[in-house]
Write a structure and sequence with these properties.
mainly beta; Pectate Lyase C-like; twelve-stranded parallel sheet; 28 strands; globular; Pectinesterase_cat; Pectin_lyase_fold/virulence; pectinesterase
Length: about 325
């Protein structure tokens, strides 16, 4: 398989275009069919353009299908929806198991509602990015499982641990909306040891909600979450953080805030084992360097080429 460096070193290479249209005017009617048409151990950028519509599909991007982009035109008009619950690795509406994946302008939702773990999106490989997506469920909405990930301009909604996992992720200009009615946590980061370079950073984000919520609770003993330059509405409880029933985690978690603002950002009553970062301490969390993003976050293709007959029978050039 080609190394990611060879893909990114090319000057925005022409992408293979596959069109999904539920009316039958594209190459495929279902998103999963378009993904399955990509060759195993794919080495080229594949751009799957999804026409507006409601897609009732449970989607998996397999591990042997790297370099795929799936793009709608408006997130609120391109909706991927399913209703499943139970195991966090089996319930997701959308599972990304391939590296070098990009999603743009999609709504990904699990409509199961309260009462069980019901993942909307599972991300379990390295170098994965989401732009302008809406990710919706109630409990464990986003299983940000493993790898380096980038979320830009996304809306993420849920009530209980709705951003969870042990990835190394940067959330930039995202809107987090809590459905919690009490003290449920927005994040549950699972870093297991100090040697793991994982954690969630929220940079320039917005936090709102229906009632009250915590910023995070410690799924792993070395749980690491940073909120920087983020607006917090009065949804955030004054204590801010929770050690999840194990007081020994107080000495090992890394919960930090930096120049956040809004009524929920007052740190005077925060738990004593969370801290505010100084300007120097904050620097590593204020750029994409923390996820090595400059080397792998790729720009949107501007040139397209026909899919081979192996991928599509009727694809036409689309600029």
């Amino acid at each position: 398989m080609a190394s990611p460096q060879s893909i990114y070193a090319a000057e925005n290479p022409a992408a293979i275009l596959i069109r999904v249209d539920p009316s039958g005017k594209g190459d495929y009617r279902k998103i999963q069919d378009a993904i399955d048409a990509v060759p195993s151990n794919n080495k080229e950028v594949v751009f799957i353009l999804v026409k507006p519509g409601i897609y009732k599909e449970k989607i998996v991007v397999p591990a042997d299908r790297p370099f795929i982009t799936i793009s709608g035109s408006k997130a609120n008009g391109t909706i991927i929806t399913w209703d499943d619950s139970g195991n966090i690795f089996e319930s997701p509406t959308f599972s990304v198991l391939a590296s070098d994946f990009v999603a743009r302008y999609l709504t990904i939702q699990n409509t199961h509602g309260a009462g069980a773990k019901a993942v909307a999106l599972r991300v379990s490989r390295d170098r994965v990015a989401f732009f302008g997506c809406r990710i919706l469920s109630y409990q464990d909405t986003l299983l940000d499982d493993t790898g380096r990930h980038y979320y830009s301009g996304c809306y993420i909604e849920g009530a209980v641990d709705f951003i969870c996992g042990n990835a190394a992720s940067l959330f930039e200009r995202c809107h987090l909306h809590s459905l919690s009615e009490g003290d449920a946590a927005i994040t549950a980061q699972r870093r297991e040891s100090p040697s793991e370079d994982t954690g969630f950073t929220f940079l320039g984000c917005k936090v709102t909600g229906v009632k009250t919520a915590l910023l995070g609770r410690a799924w792993g003993p070395y749980s690491r979450v940073v909120f920087a330059l983020t607006y917090m509405s009065n949804v955030i409880l004054p204590q801010g953080w929770d050690y999840w029933g194990d007081s020994s985690k107080q000495s090992s978690v890394f919960y930090r805030e930096y120049k956040c603002y809004g009524p929920g950002a007052n740190t005077k009553k925060r738990v004593e084992w969370s801290q505010e970062l100084t300007g120097i301490e904050a620097q590593p969390f204020l750029t994409k360097n923390m996820i090595g993003g400059k080397s792998w976050i790729r720009s949107t293709p501007t040139r397209f080429k026909k899919a081979s007959t192996a991928i599509s029978n009727n694809s036409t050039r689309h600029a």
